[in-house]
């Protein structure tokens, strides 16, 4: 099987700081991949490079065999890379429905009204928010706002959905529902998530990439990562 996405010697420097320092990475279609690592390891910068929010200093990003390194973010969305970020991207004055519709209208131009509506409602239904479609996003609970972010990504019909700390601030019950949702999403898409909750990582991920100081420290199944002494020292032991 060929990877959906690969990066080759990907680098991002901020002045003298090597935030992402030569990352070779591959993710297979249908996989749920967790990226873990201590604060400042470069996780957010790495996924920001993949979705085109920041340009790399050097290296290559390949999607389905095509070099997308220099493509602007909206073109990557059109090619199937969608993301939701830590810093909440929800417009609190707009309804849940409009929050989901807006990114679709902005990036997937030329959709008929009927198709747009169907796509928005399907994303709201999958995230359990359909009955809150008309609720102002700011009036939703924190957990529902996080789910709304996932719905915003899902409505873009991604092949690769990138989630930055999706369970942060969620209750145990909400985390459980999120994991079910992620598994369901992975039936027809690939999921790449940055996650600090190790229970979620170990239960949900097919494979784990451990980053430290801008580099990949280790990669493997949850069992392999749990058993990796270097990871224990660098990260798990300090949790
Ligand atoms: P966290 O788990 O805390 O979110 P992270 O692993 O996602 O951390 P990044 O946010 O990618 O790490 O940061 C990696 C390094 O790059 C950090 O030292 C950070 O201060 C630095 N950095 C990130 N963005 C910028 C920027 N725009 N300008 C300068 N330095 C930056």
From TrEMBL:
Question: What Gene3D superfamilies does the record tag this protein with?
Answer: P-loop containing nucleotide triphosphate hydrolases
**PROSITE patterns cross-referenced by the UniProt entry:** ABC_TRANSPORTER_2
Q: Which InterPro entries match?
A: AAA+_ATPase, ABC_AA/LPS_Transport, ABC_transporter-like_ATP-bd, BCA_ABC_TP_C, P-loop_NTPase
A molecular function annotated in GO for this UniProt entry is: ATP hydrolysis activity
Q: Where is the ABC transporter domain?
A: 5-238
Recorded GO cellular component terms are:
plasma membrane
Which keywords has UniProt assigned to this entry? ATP-binding, Nucleotide-binding, Transport
What PANTHER family would the database entry show? Answer: CONSERVED COMPONENT OF ABC TRANSPORTER FOR NATURAL AMINO ACIDS (PTHR45772:SF9), CONSERVED COMPONENT OF ABC TRANSPORTER FOR NATURAL AMINO ACIDS-RELATED (PTHR45772)
Record's protein name: ABC transporter
Q: Which organism is it from?
A: Mesorhizobium alhagi CCNWXJ12-2
């Amino acid at each position: 099987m060929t990877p959906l996405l690969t990066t080759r010697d990907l680098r991002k420097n901020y002045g003298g700081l090597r935030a992402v320092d030569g990352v070779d990475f591959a993710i297979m279609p249908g996989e749920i991949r967790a990226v873990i690592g201590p604060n400042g390891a470069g996780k957010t910068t790495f996924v920001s490079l993949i979705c085109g929010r920041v340009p790399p200093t050097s290296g290559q990003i390949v999607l389905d065999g095509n070099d997308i390194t220099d493509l602007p973010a909206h073109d990557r969305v059109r090619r199937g890379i969608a993301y939701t970020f830590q810093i909440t991207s929800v417009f609190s004055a707009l309804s849940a429905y409009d929050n989901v519709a807006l990114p679709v209208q902005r990036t997937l131009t030329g959709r008929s009204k009927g198709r747009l509506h169907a796509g928005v409602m399907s994303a709201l239904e999958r995230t359990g928010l359909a009955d809150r479609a008309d609720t102002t996003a700011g009036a939703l609970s924190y957990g529902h706002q996080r789910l709304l972010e996932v719905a915003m990504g899902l409505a873009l019909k991604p092949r690769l959905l990138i989630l930055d700390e999706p369970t942060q601030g969620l209750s145990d019950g909400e985390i459980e529902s999120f994991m079910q949702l992620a598994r369901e999403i992975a039936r027809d898409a690939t999921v790449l998530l940055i996650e600090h909750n190790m229970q979620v990582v170990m239960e949900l991920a097919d494979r784990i990439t451990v980053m430290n100081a801008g580099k990949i420290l280790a990669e493997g199944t949850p069992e392999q990562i749990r058993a990796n002494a270097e990871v224990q020292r660098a990260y798990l032991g300090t949790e």
